[in-house]
């Protein structure tokens, strides 16, 4: 199948590579061209604009940074919609606003173009190992057509409902991760302050009621002082802001998530650590402590 | 081996039953006698006081509610120490203050009595299925002597260091669980408000970066409106209070844990739901929402 991929960052590049490995013909575009180099070496074609990617593809994936990037890449003159026709299926994997996903789907529908929102969970490891979880919103027919592609890049695909439902499911996911990341960070701070062996603590906690994916995957990275982004802190902050805006619209007061957002705000906006992975949150606490002394 | 068990609540009774099933001779005491009935029927002997339990046992486990209960059961006239001698090994499985664990160990040492702090994680299910995690503080020699007993009731036993280290490790564990429980609660509130199928959400989140023990074990119970205590909310609140007191002593500001404590305070102290399990936290949020309308 002819596949297009727009946005080849940490996650996008790994997903695109898996689609290439599955034998598909791949055309790529990324704002920073150098990030497509490995894919092009592996056999992908480069196109100069998102529009040109779509013109050469049956199914186009987008995975960019922020809702504004999504809006731009879909609606600009050289954008996704400019190159689409009634045969095109568009899949936005960016974690973005449910309302924007609905807007894109409605615009697509008005022109006979099928659109799905399909954000993922599982981080860089999940993207590389094709063990992601894909959360889809949109019409059943389009979903069934591209499901075999999702299955090449993930171990779990779920259609949650109409346009925007994939984004809502992803928000639910990020709210959960806000809990595991803040919990993990504070657990390790306590562990070190109490003089316990943090490796023993991670090992014991993994076996009981405290067990979680962040603990198993980010715990060891933190102990190695490895803050390489599996998932950028600034993207996670964006997700939490969207989740809280949506929650606010629904009349929900989610205080744990709001507290996590404030902590990531300090990390990204005050300490300028947004290019670290989400596990870098612990560096913010350390700085707060040092300054208080 | 002759084993004593003082405190046969939800957790204690299940652990004691596993020790009985392993072929040990068991003597039990509980403040509310009726809670020992099933154990006595299964072959355990009843003793009228903690002191009498100890007098008939080589190893005595205690698992009571709060630090003040621990202090009382160890130091009162008819208490644990009153019946102990240099052959006795005492194991407190109550989640309690690290400083109290140190005090008990020091008092024991001054009289030649071996004492361990050994709180557990894994809830009612872990206690029943002997899949608990045991976090131990105290001397290596006493630890080695009773390790085979721990192995009958758990799947993971770790000696973390001297007296109090088991309690510190348990605090680290509870800080992590504060993150998973608040995250899970807010995830489900968001899910319902967004009109997503909560079973599908739990299923998808279990497969990705949001995966955790609370989600898998308490998520389904919440969807069934089952707030039966696997672990009492009032006990969890006690644990969080201890954790934050200890963190404060160490100069740590753990804002996510502090926020979780405030939420459980509302549940236990304002809405009087302390006898529900920790998963009942979601009922507090619902009430807040209704009142704001």
Automatic annotation (TrEMBL), chains A, B:
Indicate yes or no for the key word Oxidoreductase.
Answer: yes
Task: Fetch the InterPro entries from UniProt.
Answer: 6-PGluconate_DH-like_C_sf, 6PGD_dom2, 6PGDH_NADP-bd, HIBADH-like_NADP-bd, HIBADH-related, NAD(P)-bd_dom_sf
- Where does the secretion signal sit in this chain? none
Tell me any Pfam family this protein matches: NAD_binding_2
Q: Which UniProt keywords apply?
A: NAD, Oxidoreductase
GO MF terms on file? NAD binding; NADP binding; oxidoreductase activity
Q: Where is the active site?
A: 170
The record places domain 6-phosphogluconate dehydrogenase NADP-binding at 2-161
User: Which residue range or ranges hold the 3-hydroxyisobutyrate dehydrogenase-like NAD-binding domain?
Assistant: 164-283
Keyword Membrane listed? The answer is no
Please give the superkingdom of this protein's source: Bacteria
- So what family is this one in? Belongs to the HIBADH-related family.
| PANTHER family named among the record's database cross-references | 3-HYDROXYISOBUTYRATE DEHYDROGENASE-LIKE 1, MITOCHONDRIAL-RELATED (PTHR43060)
For this entry, the protein name equals: 3-hydroxyisobutyrate dehydrogenase
Organism this protein belongs to: Ligilactobacillus pobuzihii
């Amino acid at each position: 199948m002819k596949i297009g991929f727009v946005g080849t960052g940490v996650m996008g590049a790994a997903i695109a590579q898996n689609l290439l490995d599955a034998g598909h013909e791949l055309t790529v575009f990324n704002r920073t061209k150098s990030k497509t180099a490995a894919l092009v070496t592996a056999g992908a074609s480069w196109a100069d604009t998102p529009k040109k990617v779509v013109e050469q593809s049956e199914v186009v994936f987008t995975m960019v940074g922020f809702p504004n990037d999504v809006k731009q890449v879909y609606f600009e003159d050289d954008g996704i919609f400019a190159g689409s026709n009634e045969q095109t299926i568009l899949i936005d994997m960016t974690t973005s606003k449910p309302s924007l996903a609905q807007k894109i789907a409605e615009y697509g529908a008005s022109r006979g173009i099928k659109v799905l929102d399909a954000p993922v969970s599982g981080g860089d490891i999940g993207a590389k190992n094709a063990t992601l979880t894909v959360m889809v919103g949109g019409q059943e027919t389009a979903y069934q057509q591209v499901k075999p592609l999702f299955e090449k890049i993930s171990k779990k695909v779920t259609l949650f409902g109409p346009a925007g439902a994939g984004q809502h499911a992803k928000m639910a996911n990020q709210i959960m991760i806000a809990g595991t990341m803040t919990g993990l960070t504070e657990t390790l701070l306590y562990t070190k302050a109490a003089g316990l062996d943090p490796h023993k603590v991670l090992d014991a906690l993994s076996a009981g009621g405290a067990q979680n994916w962040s603990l198993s995957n980010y715990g060891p990275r933190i102990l190695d002082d490895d803050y390489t982004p599996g998932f950028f802190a600034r993207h996670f902050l964006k997700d939490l802001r969207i989740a809280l805006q949506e929650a606010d619209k629904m009349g929900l007061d989610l205080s744990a998530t709001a507290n996590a957002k404030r902590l990531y705000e300090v990390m990204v906006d005050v300490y300028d650590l947004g290019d670290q992975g989400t596990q870098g949150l612990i560096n913010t606490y350390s700085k707060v402590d040092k300054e208080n002394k």
